[in-house]
Specification:
The complex is a heterodimer of chains A (112) and B (114).
Chain A: E1 5-7, E2 10-13, E3 19-24, E4 31-37, E5 43-50, E6 53-57, E7 65-68, E8 75-79, E9 88-95, E10 102-103, E11 107-111
Parallel strand pairs in A: 2-11
Antiparallel strand pairs in A: 1-3, 3-8, 4-5, 4-9, 5-6, 7-8, 9-10, 9-11
Chain B: E1 3-5, E2 10-14, E3 19-21, E4 24-26, E5 33-38, E6 45-50, E7 56-58, E8 64-68, E9 73-78, E10 87-93, E11 103-104, E12 108-113
Parallel strand pairs in B: 2-12
Antiparallel strand pairs in B: 1-4, 3-9, 5-6, 5-10, 7-8, 8-9, 10-11, 10-12
Classes of the chains: A mainly beta (112), B mainly beta (114).
Chain lengths: 112, 114
């Protein structure tokens, strides 16, 4: 069964460094999403992406964040200058119909 | 604004006992409704979903959920809990418009006593 994959599973970085989180959505899906979950808290929406552009973003998704679909298969989330409060689990999701989203296993980001 | 509440932060049940996890949503129409389970350090696994039709939906691992429009609820149930069901459970609604995001509830942590 096709699934969303994410790499790395765990990323440790120093505050102020740039990180790129990678996702490979399910191949025929058209809608892509990033969510994050700070430890012990609920899952929060960051951004959705369709037709090579951002379709919606939350207040969390400020200028430090960007998304890209560089090669038609990968979907990346970049954090330009990480802060301690960016430490969280980041989930990628994809959708074919836009009414059901399939989630990846997540990348745990630890900012020191 | 749309919102999802899960009134129980933490529930403890004995293995073999029945389980009901509550979920209420706030939205002007009937949204799409989902339950996800997250084991420690793991991703989100879809248990079941409701789009339309029969208000009692069956999911994986023996779970079911019932949509009650009058109560804006979508409670998750299981007749007999197994130790492996210990996890965090999230109710989610959406998308509210085509291509929009899900809104997740705060989660309910389930502990299972032997």
């Amino acid at each position: 069964e096709p699934e969303v994959t994410q790499t790395p599973s765990h990323q440790v970085t120093q505050m102020g460094q740039e990180v790129i989180l990678r996702c490979v959505p399910i191949s025929n899906h058209l809608y892509f999403y990033w969510y994050r979950q700070i430890l012990g808290q609920k899952v929060e929406f960051l951004v959705s992406f369709y037709n090579n552009e951002i379709s919606e973003k939350s207040e969390i998704f400020d200028d430090q964040f960007s998304v890209e679909r560089p090669d038609g298969s990968n979907f990346t989330l970049k954090i330009r200058s990480t802060k301690l409060e960016d430490s969280a689990m980041y989930f990628c999701a994809s959708s074919e119909s836009a009414y059901e989203q399939f989630f990846g296993p997540g990348t745990r980001l630890t900012v020191l | 604004a749309q919102s999802v509440t899960q009134p129980d932060i933490h529930i403890t049940v004995s293995e073999g006992a029945s389980l009901e996890l509550r979920c209420n949503y706030s939205y002007g129409a009937t949204p799409y409704l989902f339950w996800y389970v997250q084991s420690p350090g793991q991703g989100l696994q879809l248990l079941l979903k409701y789009f339309s039709g029969d208000t009692l939906v069956q999911g994986i691992k023996g779970f079911e959920a019932e949509f009650k429009r009058s109560q804006s609820s979508f409670n998750l149930r299981k007749p007999s809990v197994h130790w492996s069901d210990a996890a965090e459970y999230f109710c989610a609604v959406g998308p509210f418009n085509y291509g929009q995001n899900f809104v997740f509830g705060p989660g309910t942590r389930l502990s299972v006593l032997p």
